Amino acid sequence: MSVKASHILVKKKFLADQLLERINNGESFSKLAKEFSECPSKKRGGSLGEFSRGQMVKPFEKATFALKVGEVTPEPVKTQFGYHIIKRTG
């Protein structure tokens, strides 16, 4: 089984919390990813494309596979790279 997802990666939890609030208030996930994400995927609106289990770090993978298509993580997900806001897109 594989999923498609986008994410926004930032170093500070307070910024991740602010961005998540903005997304929950209707702002464009893709637009915020392009503006704030520290991952090269920002050029694609945060899109990471399709991936299977075992390809991403565990906390990221666990959070992504738990989402339904179209859902965004309710809290930022912490990994060794920083804080991720994840949206499952497929």
Number of helices: 3
Overall pLDDT: 98
Q: State the shape.
A: globular
Main pleated-sheet profile: 4 strands, antiparallel
Low-confidence stretches: none
Terminus-to-terminus distance: 11 Å
Instruction: Return the structural class.
Output: alpha+beta
Spatial strand order of the main sheet: 2-1-4-3
Annotation, overall tally of beta strands = 4
What is the CA-atom radius of gyration, in angstroms? 12 Å
Residue share in helices? Answer: 25-40%
Strand coverage percent: 25-35%
* Multimer state: single chain
What series of H and E elements makes up the topology? EHHEHEE
Topology record:
Layout: E1 2-10, H1 13-24, H2 29-36, E2 47-52, H3 58-66, E3 77-79, E4 82-88
Brief digest:
This protein has helices at residues 13-24, 29-36, 58-66, and strands at 2-10, 47-52, 77-79, 82-88.
List its traits:
90 residues, alpha+beta, four-stranded antiparallel beta sheet, 3 helices, 4 strands, 28% strand, globular
Can you put this structure into words, describing what you see?
By secondary structure, this protein is of the alpha+beta class. Strands 2-1-4-3 form a four-stranded antiparallel sheet, sandwiched between helices. Helices cover 32% and strands 28% of the residues. The protein is globular, with a radius of gyration of 12 Å.
